[in-house]
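Notes taken during the Thursday session

The instructor put the following on the board and asked us to keep it in front of us for the whole hour. The protein is PEGA domain-containing protein. We were told not to look anything up and to reason only from what is written here. First, the residues (347 in total):
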Amino acid sequence: MTDVRTPFRSRALALLVAAGAALSAGRAAAEPGSERAAPEVSASEAEAASRFQRGVVLYQEGDFAPALIEFRRAHELAPNYRVLYNIAQVHYMLGEYAEALRAFEQYLEQGGAALNAERRAAVEAEIARLRLRVGTLELTANAGGVEIAIDDVPIGKTPLAAPVPVSSGRRRVVASKDGRSAVRIVEVAGGEHLEIRFDLPARPRPTEPLRPAADRGASTTPARGGASAAGPAVPLWPWAATAILAAGAGVSGALALTTTSALTTRRETFGSTREEREALDDRRRALSLAADALAGAAVVMGGVSLYLTLARGGPAPAAESGARGSPRTGRAAITLTPAGVRIQGAF
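Then, after some discussion, the predicted structure tokens were revealed:
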């Protein structure tokens, strides 16, 4: 079977040399005997030209994925609209038609008046062919700020400004927010428009801290002689503070895991910048530190809450009665030691 991309590849090879010459023009030295000094070339421009030539060699060898990386690096180091044409070519050969379409459109936009009518017409013809191999996905969710990724490539957060162009074929779409996620596998035909809505499950409500048994069962009926039979009430604020600190530690930990996943995706995504990766790494470190600090504070506050519950939750001591058969109220002393909690007394 004949590969329909072969004619396109043949035309592309003829244009690679011209683009490489334009990218390397800044490195041309002055002619012998000329009084005009050669233009100074920066290190980034020199590296861009070298990477571009390396990409041309890889493209000619049919090693398209590494060629795409080299062309992208060349364009990042020394932006030149001509390189966008080569990037579009490699995307086309890899079957990434949506990315090729986007690169061709940027080529026409940035090339502007520098493109002659023949070149513009040829590129517009390629764009018309690619649109037959590209569909669009209109992605919505039942909440705002839901992160959308297609084939493990982050797209943005809902609400998205416009439908997302995707190459025809089977696509994996993931929506996630705050530890909740949903996955859809869809088949997209060329020129097809699909609407996909994600309904993420509702966030679970935080559970109320359990009230100590002594406080729940305490009787408000005064005992004989006017004394309260239930004794001092157990304060609830230490348990509430413990629950808040524990919840904060859980949320911070979940956000740290989400940020770690996003950082991993960025590291594996072509074209991600060092600034984006460093920002995600700084956020991950800050969230992890916050989670550790909140967890430690929750443990300390839990110990304080337990101490106050044991110390104040028992029945109030009453005077021993001299009558036979009268009950005796136990007394206990609670002491915090480096090894734990010590309880002493008679019951």
